Structure formats: C-alpha cells, structure tokens
Amino acid sequence: MIGTLLGFVDDRALLARFRLLLAASAVVRAATVLTLFPLLRELLSDDPAGAWPWIALLALLVPVSWVVDVRYARASFAIGFTLLRVVEQRVLQRFERLAIPDVSPSVASATQRALTASGQELCGAFAYVIAPLLASLVATLLIGLGLAVVSAWLGLAALASLVALGLAMMASGALLRQAEASYDAASIEVGERIVEFAQAQRVLRASGRPVDADAPLGRALAAQRRASLRLLRLALPGTLLFALAGQAALAGLTVVAVALSRDGTLSGAEVVALVVVAVRFLEPFFTAAGLSATLEVTRGSLQRIGRLLATPPLPEPVSDVVPDPVPGAPTLELRGVDFAYPGGPPVLRGVDLVAERGRTVAVVGPSGSGKSTLLAVAARLADPSAGTVLHDGIPARELPLGALSARIGAVLQDVYLLDLPLLENIRLARPDAGDDEVRAAGSAAQLDDVVARLPDGWRTRVGEAGALLSGGERQRVSIARALLKRAPLLLLDEATSAVDALTERALVAALQAGAAERATIVVAHRLGTIADADEILFVDGGAVVERGTHAELLAAGGRFAAYWRRREAAAGWTLTGEAVTAG
Length: 583
Known about the structure:
Organism: Patulibacter brassicae
Keywords: ATP-binding, Membrane, Nucleotide-binding, Transmembrane, Transmembrane helix
Subcellular location: Cell membrane
CATH superfamily of the largest domain: ABC transporter type 1, transmembrane domain
Membrane topology: Multi-pass membrane protein
GO molecular function: ATP binding
Radius of gyration: 35 Å
CATH class of the largest domain: Mainly Alpha
Strand content: 5-15%
C-alpha cells in the first residue's frame, strides 16, 4: 500500500527527502530506545556514576530526534498534499477520457467519492497515520537488530515476535477488508440512489411518493447501516487477536531475558532494562493495532481509485502533433460504422455518412433507432466496434482528444449549465473569447430577452445545472456556445425541441448564417429543419434504410415518405374537450 501511495508522487526530490528523513528518524528513535539499556543497567548497578555518559548521549538524542521528526513531519504533509493534488488530477483526467458507455452510475459514483473524499482520506491518513507509523516500525526493526547484538537469543525472540505480530495484523486486516468491501459496495449504492433521488424530485413530489424503507434509497441506506455494523463487529476479533499476540511477544521476550540471567549472561539490572526496551520495542505494533481500521479504510480508498484509473480510456495517439487534413476530404465521414453498448444488442449497423463543409445532413427515424448514438460516435464520445470515423480524412483515433474536441460544436438535448454567470457559461465554448464576442453569440441565440429579465443581466449566476433558466432558455445557451465556438463541424440533437416556433425560426436562421463555413449534422423531428437539409438519412434499427434529398425521398414513397406524412398529420392535431382531432 505504501509503495502504491508513493507511486502517485511526481516530485522525485520530495520523495528522496522523505526517504532520507524516514531513515534518519528511524535511526534516531532506535538509538534513543537502545540507549535506555546501558543507562538503566548502570543506574541499577552498584556504581550509578557510570550512567552519566549514557545520560549525556540521551540528552543529545532527544533534541536531534525532535529536529529530525519535525522535518520528517513536514515532508510527510508535503507528500500528503501532493497525493491529494495528483489523485484529483488523475481521476479527472481519466474520467474526461472515458468512453460514454463506460460512464456507468457506479463509475460516476466512484469518481464523485474519489474527488470529494478519497483524496482527502489519503492525504490525512498518510500525513497523520502512515508516515509516523512507518518511521516507528522501521525503528522497531533496528531495535530488534540491537537486541541481537546483546544476545542472539534475544534477536531470535525479537524476530519471532515480529513474525507473530505481523501474522496477527494480516489476519485482522483480512477480516476488516472483507467487511470494508461490503461497506464500500453499500456506500456506492447509496451514492447512486441519492443522485437518482435528487434528479427525480419533480416526479416524486408530483406523484406524492414518500421516501420509505421500501423505496430504493431507503433499502440502500438500510444496507449501508447493516454493512457499518458488520464492519464494527469484525474489527473486534482482529483487535483481540492482535492484543493476545502482543502480550505473548512481551512475555516471550521477558522469559528469554530471565533465562539469560539465570545462566549468568545477563545481570538482574540488565533484565529490568531489557523489559523496558521490550515494551518500547512492541509499542509501534500496539499503535498499529489501534489504527488498523483507519489503515483498512485508506486501503479501500486506494483500491477504489486504482479500479477507476484501471478503466481504459479512449486511446489517443502518442504524439500531440495534429496531422494535416487530407486535401479534398469531407469534414466528417463514417464508413461502415457498427456500435453496441457493453453487453447490449447492436445500436448502429454499417452506417455510412458524409458531411461536407457548407452542407447539412439530417438524420431522422423513430425513437430508439440510434440517431443520438450516431452523433456520439461522430464526436468520439465512444469508439465504434467496427468501421471508421474520419475528420478531414484523418481517422478519429489519430487525433488527440483535445484537438478533436476543438473541431466539434454540439447542441444536445440535455444541456448542463454550471453555477456561473450566464456570460461565463457561454464562454466555456471558447475561453479566450472577449465579452463582446460572447454577448454577440448570446444575442444571435435569442438570449437578449432572457438577459433583460435577469437581475444582473449577463453577470447573473444561473444556479446549479441552470436552475434559474427554463429548458428552452438552457437550449439557447447551448446554441450560443456552438455559435461562439465556430467549429468546422456542428452536431445538433433536437437543438430547438424546447422552444416555441417563433424562437425556433430565429435560432435556425442564426445557425444557418454560418452554415457555409461548417458541416452540419442535425437530428430533428421538426419538419422545416428536415426539409431544408441537403441530404436526409432515414435510420431504423441502427441502419440507414434510405438516403437522399427531401424531394427524392418523398418521390420514392418509402419509409421516409410515410414518416413525413405522419408528421404532417400530427402537426395539424388539436386538443378539444372530447378528443384529439385533425385540423
């Protein structure tokens, strides 16, 4: 565990200083304890004056130990804070590079726990527990070597004590790890259910459904309580086992010392001195026993982080150099793309798509046909299981994720805003954009009327997840981001589904204003958006079953024509007091 923790530290000079101070601290501590043996021997002898040199040595070792330990503690805290920083960075970097299908609720919950708790646990545990305990245990080994110098039998007894205590610690740790695994799983389940509970508040309150013991959150909390009690119960046997092993080790060392006094190897004063040294020799192990639960929690946090970092990210090229575009290649091309979520049926099957600069491709089809997944694969939020995705003729896998992201603007159905001013939420698309550019993009996205009613205008914080804005207003912010980014590829997934018809026409006009400079792929049900596309792909069952212009597909009288007629008929429906009628 300690090696894994130190493996996170990227400051080699700090690591070298820590190891040097660890060795110095252990040596000084061992020397301080071993000095007690000749000191007590002389004090209990017939001539106590012989203790003065040892008293002087002890008086020197005490301030030296204090100075070394202070420096060692500072290095330990520096490593602890480095662990906090590096763990957070690596977890965030890995999470940002995971394929969307790999971002399961359990992975999201583990990431949240790693960022909000595990890093802090590792930082505090290393600085306050592991580093001091490590120095004490190394000092104990040195004390054991010192006892072997006094007598080989004492050295053997010390070695046997270390083995027995080590086995007791392993047994205690195994019991705690078993309980910790159950508690960890229960905590992850609670985390998932709390997120689910928070997101479903509108539905739960509208239905009047209370949180009771039979609800998913209630069951998860009950399971966590049972796991907590089991963790406490299993901690007791391990602690008792270790206490027995410690008492046996102390008794064994005392028996050996007494036996050596009987054959004349040691004097009575030396036996008393050795008993005092033996107590100090075993003290770090008793401290470790009391901290075993903390150590196992730390081990659990480290394993959670390890499992998260072991999740393979989307592969990236070794070099950060962005390849040059292939002359004449389309902005985006999908060749024979297949895709399936882990353990699920195929979602995309043999999809071919070409999107060129200045042209718009509309993707239509029934719900669940794979339209949104097609956009996700195009944006490389996930890699296809077969086929190739190319951007300007370059395979997506050969582009660094940062460079690929800079080439794509996206307006998706689910818009998430940060609790930042409206201006900064738009600026996320291009952090170097000036205020005037951001406001211009916002105005083009029809946000002026929204800004007018906000108390601080563009500087108004929009609340967690954009809670101060309606769904249609959040979509406008997302469109403003896309307009500000000016990426060569624009992906629109029901980008105007939550706005009224008048606002939609203005937004479509704003998006079309720069359409000549980019390729656009749009997933939509609105008839106007579909009819204006340069090419339409009708997708069903994950496959493109028809493609062509609007006029060509209507003339063919196939699946798209039937879909179009149903949409036109639905557009004329009205609700009356008795039934739905066609207008």
